[in-house]
Amino acid sequence: MEFDLINRYFAPLGKGLAEADLSIGDDGAVITPPKDSQLVVVTDTSIEGVHFPLLTSPFDVGWKSLAVNLSDLAAMGARPAFYSLALTIEKYDQAWLAAFTGGLCAMMQSLVDDAAISALPLVGGDTTRGPLSITITAHGWVRRGCAIPRSGAQPGDGIFVSGLLGEGGLGLSLALAAQQPNNAAEVQALTKLNRPNPRVGLGLALVDLATSAIDISDGLLADLNHILQASKVGADLDMTAMPMSNAVKAWAGADWLKPINAGDDYELCFTLPPQHWSKLADLSSQYAVKLTKIGQITAQKGCRLDGQAIATADLTSEQGFNHFASHLKS
Fold first, then answer.
1. Cβ 135 vs Cβ 43: under 8 Å
2. Secondary structure (3-state) at 213
3. Are strands 133-143 and 37-47 parallel, antiparallel or unpaired?
4. What is the mean pLDDT of residues 260-270?
5. Planar angle of CA 312, 316, 319, nearest 5 degrees
């Protein structure tokens, strides 16, 4: 049964490697690295009821499981090359598998359509029986010495984010309430939650420009704090500059930290020296994404919002998504 599952649903996703390379069907994949490149490897596990609500469609589970890995590659400035999949499922459900692999395929095709990559083959993995769990390891290439780290931010750099903040959090609140969207803004939030758009093209363009970057998965404050800690710097943030939709502002109400502590945005937060700020308008147009300056890196440690120091607890994933404490219920 396992080999039938692999041959029917996953082998077709293995196309796109060079002729001399090997994908699904051997004991291991064989990949030829490009000249003068380094390999960037990211892994993410998604567990039903923890990382996505129990009633999430298998298409959306497939899409998001791959997208969150590609968002990590984007933050490193890496070009996605191939991925492996370890899938644990409770039973051999053909309808579920067809929809799940359809989501994987659609996520890959969206990147090809955006011209960020030419192909993203599945090269192997494993299938087992048990509670639903998806682990994807994605690999990408970056020019030697050119990966964007978290540790390069310098005082005077601007702090920028792509897209809108808080959309994933609003979408999750709707999903957990099993609430049908009432308007276009709520449809947008649910789409952002279930089918995030990894900023691969933008990440590639930020190589040689950004001094640091991270993807916003656990909440802006928690993820920005990783940059501050790694770079040994601080930050001054402007709450009025935070890019949010009116729907997110209404959802947040008086809790102004709520949208920037919510996870599931999968946008990029990056730092850029002043000499490169003028290039952002072209990048915004080229990749059809809003790019917003929300603050500045400082030599003074800590993080301040509108001049007020942010408590340490609000800079950790305890306030955003905590992998050891966050559990979703349908």
1. yes
2. strand
3. antiparallel
4. 94
5. 105
Reply yes or no on whether the pLDDT at 323 is more than 60.
no
Strand positions, DSSP E, the chain: 37-47, 79-89, 122-129, 133-143, 158-162, 212-216, 234-237, 267-272, 291-298, 302-305, 308-309
Given a cut of 90, whether residue 11 has pLDDT beyond it is no
Ramachandran bin of 230, using left for φ above 0, alpha for ψ from -120 to 50, beta for the remaining angles: alpha
Secondary structure percentages of the chain, helix, strand, coil, to 5: 35, 25, 40
pLDDT digits (tens, 9 = 90+) for 186-223: 999 999 999 999 999 999 999 999 999 999 999 999 99
Provide the whole-model pTM: 0.92
Percent of the chain with pLDDT over 70: 94
Question: How many other C-beta atoms lie within 10 A of the C-beta of residue 73?
Answer: 27
CA torsion angle 105 110 116 120 (round to 10) = 0
The DSSP code sequence of 82-101 is EEEEEEEESS--HHHHHHHH
Which phi and psi angles does 303 have, rounded to 5°? -130, 130
Angle separating helix axes 167-176 and 184-194, nearest 10 degrees: 90
Structure tokens belonging to residue 252? 């947040």
